[in-house]
């Protein structure tokens, strides 16, 4: 399994060790903001390039290197988010955040000096890596997204967030509050992790059996399925809505898959939650993430764009 790059053992330079140890956290932060691990890695590379472009004297003058790195990475992300809408408009078909294999290895935070949001509202680290959370972030303004992720997830104070966003701490508090309402409004009834795994497993079995009625029974009547091929793989150009329509769509996919040799389907952890991964000839060709509300599947996101599957291991 591919995971965020670990810092190297330098031994002779404790300062360098401390700087490089921030890499995992920075990648996790940038991924949540951008929805793309490739972009997150580029952001972190640029952040370190700016650090090492400074003279040793300027580096030593930085009181908290971790905070400096976060500020720079956050500003780079904010700039990228400003142009993301135009890039999304040029994207072929629907755009879905890049799915990640596993979960805990991508969850890292920072206990900053700020005050966390109300515990009832605060987004937890594991929730913040879920596909449902990342999709809601896409509906927010860049400033809302940065304020929410840095304050609620990574525990930075609004004064620290203000330095990145370029607004007052009070304005950043309002941004986070607005973003938090979007998260609350999008949440459905909680489902125990074991039940989520059961539903995904039942969906897999019904899909492979082409059992239309079983699939309909697993789906919320208002369910939505979205697929992302990026123009590089076959995918539905528009979301499929409604339980029956989605069930028929997947039954048709199953019938077509039978004509393709070497295609297998397995239950795997996707962004920290139960999902499905399709392999063909040892290559990951599709990843499905689910949002489950209560006892039904409410959202399905299927990523087929091979550029977004490069971190997925071979079967």
Automatic annotation (TrEMBL):
Record domain RNA polymerase sigma factor 70 region 4 type: where: 131-183
One Pfam family, short name: Sigma70_r4_2
Limits of the RNA polymerase sigma-70 region domain: 20-85
Source superkingdom: Bacteria
Keywords: Sigma factor, Transcription, Transcription regulation
SUPFAM superfamilies recorded: NTF2-like (SSF54427), Sigma2 domain of RNA polymerase sigma factors (SSF88946), Sigma3 and sigma4 domains of RNA polymerase sigma factors (SSF88659)
Signal sequence annotation: none
Record-linked PANTHER family: ECF RNA POLYMERASE SIGMA FACTOR SIGI-RELATED, SIGMA 19 FACTOR
NCBIfam families tied to this protein: PRK09636.1, sigma70-ECF
Entry similarity comment: Belongs to the sigma-70 factor family. ECF subfamily.
Subunit structure: Interacts transiently with the RNA polymerase catalytic core formed by RpoA, RpoB, RpoC and RpoZ (2 alpha, 1 beta, 1 beta' and 1 omega subunit) to form the RNA polymerase holoenzyme that can initiate transcription.
Name assigned to this protein: RNA polymerase sigma factor SigJ
Organism in which the protein naturally occurs: Streptacidiphilus cavernicola
